[in-house]
Amino acid sequence: MKIDILLGLQWGDEGKGKIVDAISPDYDIIARFQGGPNAGHSLEFNNVKHVLHLIPSGIFHPDKLNIIGNGVVIDPAVFKTEIVGLGPAVDELAKRLIISTKANLILPSHRILDAAYECQNGLIKIGSTLKGIGPAYTDKTSRNGLRVGDILRKDFRKLYDIHLKRHLNILKNYDLKYNLDEYEKGWFEGIEMLKNFRIVNTEYLVNELAGSGKRVLAEGAQGTMLDIDFGSYPFVTSSNTISAGACTGLGISPKLIGEIFGIFKAYCTRVGSGPFPTELEDETGASLRDIGREFGSTTGRPRRCGWLDLPALKYSIMINGVTRLFMTKADVMSGFKTIKICTSYKVDGKECLEIPFDKDSIIEPVYTELAGWQEDISGIKEFIKLPDSLKKFVEFIEKQTGVPVTLVSVGPDREETIFRT
Ligand code: GDP
Ligand code: IMO
Ligand code: MG
Question: Residue 179: exposed, middle, or buried by beta-carbon count in 10 A (0-12, 13-18, 19+)?
Fold first, then answer.
């Protein structure tokens, strides 16, 4: 059976957690392929909101298998807190969650290094979540990483100490006060927690399961515009958030990929620094933030808000090979008299459809204005019953991108989802 991918097309927080949870009934396995505890994936059902950072968003479906793939970086302390917060007993969760031997570990000193790099940058502040993501992926690619499979080795503590010493040497160059003991205690408790779970070469498992007809959904984190290669570098995360990342982050061939679901908000948000062409630093932006409750799921930071950016969306569709679009937060747009969509940019005064390489380019969005809709749409279950102007908004996006919008989300709850075939 082909493997489907669901990933973000904007700057993260598009609603991946909600939608993965909502479509999990169609799958047997949900597998996270990259990122780490920088992610915050929210989902709601029975009036309770859950936020996941490392654990795939299929975990609340008892009959589904969840996999943390090799492309993910795991902080054991965060993992333990998340497992304890989920509710079900550890041995129950251990039946539904499997972890790759090859997922790299975020060490306590990676978090300190993250803070050190962010402070010293001075000129460029990425606005990192400071979860140790950059330093952990750096150690992975420079072949200095520790992996989940290593925790089962007798000499694990010795290996840890070697890496810690190396990090402490680097930190001597930075004027940063830190308390390592505070992190280390929870981290080693997290290592013990990890040992309750099956730690296997998940690339064999995913291929075997897909080969035997099981349906696998690969869950992305962050968004395409935060991709290490194709995002607004250097204001990006440190992994490949795009569909190709599912292949490397799970150990699957591109030949195995089926549908590529690209998820986007009906507007745009961004947390942290970096270019954001359609950003609204006015009352409209503040309204989107208030109505959409746009505050980071991981750090609580207010999200920057702006109108939908089609050049960025089209770019993401191209890079990922998106086959279906899922639009979230349509309900947040209710009440605006008119709605703007950016259809092209003026870069340094000239009309341009491409995202410029130079992060310092002045990008001026060129807008098309559409009629808004006033109705509360959160209770609507069928596409046909949505206000005409919202249907026109969707049709406009489909026409511009050439990709069908087959799901519209009208609220944070699992049930507030309109499927359209
Ligand atoms: P993720 O990182 O892509 O999983 O997204 P987040 O969970 O960080 O942020 C999305 C936020 O929007 C969460 O608070 C969700 O509960 C909420 N959400 C998701 N879909 C909708 C929707 O259609 N309407 C509204 N109002 N909220 C939504
Ligand atoms: P989900 O999966 C939104 C942003 C940070 C920062 C930059 C680098 O919930 O969509 P990092 O911690 O990776 O060093 O931060 O990327 N960022 C996210 N923004 N959603 C996320 O994940 C993010 N993960 C990282 O704010 O600008
Ligand atoms: Mg999020």
Answer: exposed
Tell me which DSSP letter residue 189 carries. H
Catalytic residue among 41, 53, 110, 167: 41
Ramachandran sector of residue 83 (left: φ over 0; alpha: ψ -120 to 50; beta: rest): alpha
Entry field: residues in the chain: 421
pLDDT for 121 equals 60
Pick the atom of ligand 2 nearest to 128's CA: 15
342 contacts 308 by C-beta, under 8 angstroms? yes
The candidate with the shortest Cα–Cα distance to 4, out of 316, 327, 252, is 252
Active-site annotation holds for 41 = yes
State the ligand closest to the CA atom of 376: 1
290 noted as active-site residue: no
**Measured distance CA(303)–CA(299) in Å, rounded:** 10
pLDDT at 299: 85
To the question of pTM greater than 0.85 for the whole model, the response is yes
Instruction: Name the residue of 130, 228, 237 whose CB sits within 8 Å of the most ligand 2 atoms, as the mutation to test its pocket.
Output: 237
Rounded to the nearest 5 degrees, what angle is found at the Cα of 68, between the Cα atoms of 235 and 45?
90
pLDDT per residue as tens digits for the range 24-33? 999 999 999 9
- The answer on pLDDT for 120 being more than 80 is no
